Model the fold of this input.
Amino acid sequence: MKILAVDTALGACSTAVLDGAIILAHRFEPMERGHAERLAPMVQDAMATARLDFAGLDRLGVTVGPGTFTGQRVGYAFMRGLRLALDRPLIGLTTLEAMAQAAMGETRVRTAAVVHDARRDEVYVAAMHRGRITVPVQIAVFAEAVRMIRAAIVAEESILALAGTAAAATASILRQSGLDVIETGIVAPDALWVARMALSAPEPETVPRPLYLRAPDARLPGNRA
Done:
């Protein structure tokens, strides 16, 4: 099965083309801005490297959030357009699931958590154990996020791999509790892991929807969102 996946939701722009377990092309560039300008050329380059026409794709994958309001819309809109043009299933995955899966793959441990700065003294948080979500994707104050992760890890009695921009601060607190923690350095999703997860995901019956855990700061006239 051939799949194209992209991510633009956080601090990187990435794309990957897979044929089953075989990586045909992979691009990953850290960036805080400019996703909209970079994504299309990156995808075209990856498809050329893979020597694959868009019509040869069987599936599409994309991160649906959480992330920056503008960033996550770039990748989502691009892939939704491809879905309509190609009539292929589009698999949506959260940014935190993709980062957690990457952390487990990088460290070879069975449990991972993502704690990522969401500003306003809050973080995006999620945890997984052997592919099972143990802390659902959500936004929380930092102290509550650490508490949820600690409870999940104690229950699983596992070594924990940490990802996200708040991983170092989280690791410092958890280590004081005697927990075994590995910091991965992963601070953004990678489309390679989005593609790998989307390959085995069930085919959706509907179009995936963007995941916004907070309303946008921008407001329209008349106080409309």
